[in-house]
Every structure is written in structure tokens, then in C-alpha cells.
Amino acid sequence: MADKSSSNAYWAANIRIILISLVIWFTCSFGFGILLRPMLSGISVGGTDLGFWFAQQGSILVFLVLIFFYAWKMGKIDAEHGVDE
């Protein structure tokens, strides 16, 4: 990264990926697990309702998927901006 505009573009892409990941995680953990739980109570997953599943396991699994997505996407962004290993 030689110039400031390239550096700003890199960090803007990084922050955008972080914000998207946080919104997805918030929606799954707080939204589906707490706020929308009464609406999801009629859907059964593994012997329990979907809202409870999101509160107990779903948000954790979504978080793990987001970790791997972030690492993959940042690898691509690093290569685009010439800061890959």
C-alpha cells in the first residue's frame, strides 16, 4: 500500500465486513433468540422451538460461520490491496 487512498479503501472494506458481520450476529442472537422468539415458538428444531434454539445454539453456530467468512473475505481483500502474505 503506497498511498493514502489505497489505505483508506482497505480499511473501509475491512470496517464494512465487520459491520455486516455484527449486524448478522446481532440479528441471529438478539433478534431471533429474544425479540422474535414468540413468533418462532411454533417451529420445531431438534425437539425444541426455533427461538430457543437460536438463543442456545444458533447464535454460536452463526458466530463460528462468521469467523470463517471474515477470514476468507479478508484474505481476498488483502490480496486485492497487496497486503497479503
From TrEMBL:
Signal peptide: none annotated. The keyword Methyltransferase does not apply. The keyword Membrane applies. Residues 8-84 form the Sodium symporter small subunit domain. It comes from the Bacteria. Keywords: Membrane, Transmembrane, Transmembrane helix. It holds the Pfam family DUF4212. The chain crosses the membrane at residues 12-34, 54-72. This is DUF4212 domain-containing protein.
